[in-house]
Design a protein that fits this description.
Layout (H helix, E strand, L loop, with lengths): L1 E8 L3 H12 L4 E5 L6 H5 L1 H20 L12 H12 L2 H11 L3 E4 L2 E5 L2 E4 L2 E10 L4 E2 L13 H4 L8 E5 L3 H12 L3 E5 L11 H13 L2 E4 L6 E5 L2 E6 L2 E5 L1 E4 L3 E2 L13 E2 L2 E2 L12 E3 L12 H15 L13 E4 L3 E6 L2 H4 L5 E7 L4 H5 L6 E7 L5 E8 L2 H13 L4 H4 L18
Parallel strand pairs: 1-2, 1-6, 2-3, 6-18, 8-9, 8-14, 9-10
Antiparallel strand pairs: 4-5, 5-6, 7-15, 11-12, 12-13, 16-17, 19-20, 20-23, 21-22, 22-23
Helix pairs in contact: 1-9, 3-4, 3-7
Bound molecules: flavin-adenine dinucleotide (FAD) and nicotinamide-adenine-dinucleotide.
Protein name: Glutathione reductase
Organism: Lacticaseibacillus camelliae DSM 22697 = JCM 13995
Family: Belongs to the class-I pyridine nucleotide-disulfide oxidoreductase family.
Length: about 450
C-alpha cells in the first residue's frame, strides 16, 4: 500500500488551498479528485456564473443609460456568451491537475472512499495517510417528487448550448436569484417557484424586497407558497404541478440548497455527520482525530463560500505544520450577484436591534451623485458601528456594484479601523469609496 503524509480528498478550492502549502513544506501529499479538477467554483459555480453575469451587467448598465443619452440596448447572443465562458472553463481541469503534479504532489483520478481512519481506496488501489483532509464539497438537492429525473441543476444551466424560452427555478436562494437574472436578461421568460414567501432568508428583508422589485420589473415571475408535487413531460416541454397550480416551461432547475453526498463511507472511519455536513471541532478535526474536514462539506456557521473553503484549507495546512491556535474566522463578506447586488458583512441590523451598544446608519443612496451618474434603480448603504469604540462591525450594501464597497468595509472591520479614522482617509473622487465621508 502506498503511504503519504497527507491525503486530500477533493481537488476544489478547499482541498487545493490545504494541499499546496503542505507540499511546499516538504510533505508527501496525495490529492484525489473524482470529477473536474478545480471543483465547483471554477468549473460550474462562481467563476462561470460571473462570466455570464458580465454580459448581463453590461446590458443592464446600457439599458439604464438610455435615459442619459445612450442609444439602444444590446442583445445577448447566448451561444457566443457560452463560448466565452467555455474558453475559460475548458482550461480549468487540466491546468489545475498539472499545477498539482507540477508542485510535486501525486494526483489520482477517481472516487475516494474510506477503508478505516488512515486508509482510503480509489478503485482497486489503497492509500494510507498519516493525516487525511476531506474537502469533497456539496451536491444540489433535488425535490423528492414524481418526474425528479427531468429536473436540471445550476451545473446544467451554466453549460447550456441554447437558452430555453421559458424556464423555472425551484427555490429562492443565491443560485435561483442569480441565474434567474442571467436567464431573464438573456431573453428567457423566467419563473421562480418558492415554497414559502421569503427569498434569500440570510439577507435583510428590505434589501431583498428591493431586489425582488427590480426582478419583477425585469419580468421575472415569483410564485409563492407552492409545494411542487410533480414534473411531467408534455408536448412542448415540462409541466410543473402543485395543489391548484400548473406551469408549463421548457426547462426547470433545482436551486433548493446543496448537501454533501454519502459516497465516502465515513462510518468506516467513525466520522460523525448531520444533515448539514461533517461535524468538526475548533481545529476542523472530525471525530476521527487524524481526519480533518474543510469547505462546503463541513457543518458550520460560516457561509459555504469559496474564500471560506480556501481560508479553512490554509488553516488546516498550518495546523498540520505545527500551529496550535484554533480557527478564528475574520468578518466574511458575501454578495448575491443579481438584478441588484446585495452584499453583507459582519453584524446585521437585525442582530443588533434594540442593543444600545450599536448604532445603525442606513442611507437610501439611490439619488446620490454616485448612483444617479449610473442611473441605478435602487441603492442603499447600511453601516453598523459600535457606539463606544466607533468600530465598524457590519454593513449591507445594495446597488448594481455593491461588492466593491462591501470589500472596502470588510477591510475596515477586519483591521479594526474606526469610523473616525476612515473619515481621515482620502479616497479617489468621485467614487463609492469617497461617499464613505457621508456614510460612517
Ligand atoms: C452556481 C454556484 C455559484 C456559486 N457562486 C459563488 C460565488 O459567487 N462566490 C462564492 O464564494 N461561492 C460561490 N459558490 C460556492 C462555491 O462554489 C463553493 O463554496 C466552493 O466551491 C467550495 O469549495 P470546496 O473545495 O469545499 O468544494 P468543491 O468546490 O465542491 O470541491 C469539492 C471537490 O471534491 C470532489 N469530490 C467529491 N467527493 C469526492 C470523492 N469521494 N473522491 C474524490 N473527489 C471527490 C468533487 O468532484 C469536487 O471537485 C457557488 C456555488 C454554485 C453551485
Ligand atoms: N454569490 C454567492 O456567493 C453564491 C452563489 C450561488 C451559490 N452560493 C452557495 O451555494 C449555496 C447553495 O445555493 P442555493 O441557492 O442552492 O441554496 P440556498 O440555501 O441559498 O437557497 C435555497 C432555497 O431553496 C428553498 N427551498 C428549500 N427547500 C425547498 C423546496 N422543497 N421547495 C422549494 N424551495 C425550497 C429555500 O427556501 C431557499 O430559498 C449557497 O448557500 C451558497 O453557499 C453562493
Amino acid at each position: 500500500m502506498q503511504q503519504y503524509d497527507v491525503i486530500v480528498i477533493g481537488g476544489g478550492p478547499g482541498g487545493l488551498a490545504a494541499a499546496y502549502p503542505l507540499a511546499q513544506a516538504g510533505k508527501k501529499v496525495l490529492v484525489v479528485e473524482r470529477d473536474l479538477w478545480g471543483g465547483t467554483c471554477p468549473n460550474y459555480g462562481c467563476d462561470p456564473k460571473k462570466m455570464l453575469y458580465s454580459a448581463v451587467q453590461a446590458k443592464s448598465y446600457a439599458a439604464r443609460m438610455t435615459s442619459a443619452g445612450l442609444n439602444g440596448i444590446p442583445d445577448i447572443n447566448w451561444p457566443k456568451l457560452m463560448a466565452f465562458k467555455r474558453a475559460y472553463t475548458r482550461t480549468v481541469p487540466n491546468g489545475t491537475r498539472s499545477g498539482v503534479t507540477g508542485a510535486g504532489m501525486i494526483a489520482v483520478d477517481g472516487e475516494a472512499r474510506f477503508i478505516d481512519e488512515r486508509t482510503i481506496a480509489v478503485g482497486q488501489d489503497q492509500y494510507e495517510g498519516q493525516d487525511i483532509i476531506i474537502a469533497t464539497g456539496v451536491q444540489p438537492v433535488l425535490p423528492n417528487i414524481r418526474g425528479q429525473e427531468l429536473i436540471k441543476t445550476s451545473r446544467d444551466f451554466l453549460d447550456m448550448d441554447q437558452l430555453p424560452q421559458r424556464v423555472a427555478f425551484i427555490g429562492a436562494g443565491y443560485v435561483s436569484m442569480e441565474l434567474a437574472n442571467i436567464a431573464a436578461e438573456a431573453g428567457a421568460e423566467v419563473h421562480v417557484i418558492m415554497h414559502g414567501d421569503r427569498a434569500l432568508r440570510a439577507f435583510p428583508e428590505d434589501a431583498v424586497t428591493a431586489l425582488q422589485k427590480a426582478m419583477k420589473n425585469a419580468h421575472i415571475h415569483f410564485h409563492e407558497n407552492i409545494e411542487l408535487t410533480s414534473v411531467e413531460q408534455v408536448t412542448h416541454g415540462l409541466r410543473l404541478a402543485a395543489k391548484g397550480f400548473t406551469l408549463d416551461v421548457q426547462q426547470v432547475f433545482a436551486a433548493m440548497g446543496r448537501r454533501p453526498d454519502d459516497q465516502l463511507h465515513l462510518n468506516r472511519a467513525h466520522i460523525k455527520t448531520n444533515a448539514h455536513g461533517i461535524v468538526v471541532n475548533e481545529f476542523l478535526q472530525t471525530s476521527a482525530p487524524h481526519v480533518y474536514a474543510i469547505g462546503d462539506v463541513v457543518d458550520k456557521k460560516a457561509p459555504k463560500l469559496t474564500p471560506v473553503a480556501g481560508f479553512e484549507g490554509r488553516y488546516v495546512a498550518e495546523h498540520l505544520l505545527g500551529a496550535k491556535a484554533s480557527i478564528r474566522y475574520p468578518a466574511i463578506p458575501t454578495t448575491v450577484y443579481g438584478t441588484l447586488e446585495i452584499s453583507k458583512v459582519g453584524l446585521s441590523p437585525a442582530e443588533v436591534a434594540g442593543d444600545a451598544r450599536y448604532i445603525v446608519k442606513t442611507e437610501n443612496t439611490t439619488h446620490w451623485y454616485t448612483y444617479n451618474r449610473t442611473q441605478e434603480s435602487f441603492a442603499s448603504v447600511t453601516v453598523v458601528e459600535e457606539r463606544a469604540t466607533k468600530l465598524i462591525v457590519g454593513a449591507i450594501v445594495v446597488s448594481s456594484s455593491a461588492e466593491s464597497l462591501v470589500n472596502l468595509l470588510t477591510l475596515a472591520i477586519n483591521t479594526k479601523t474606526p469610523a473616525d479614522q476612515v473619515l481621515k482617509m482620502i479616497f479617489a473622487y468621485p467614487s463609492e469609496a469617497s461617499d464613505l465621508d457621508y456614510l460612517v
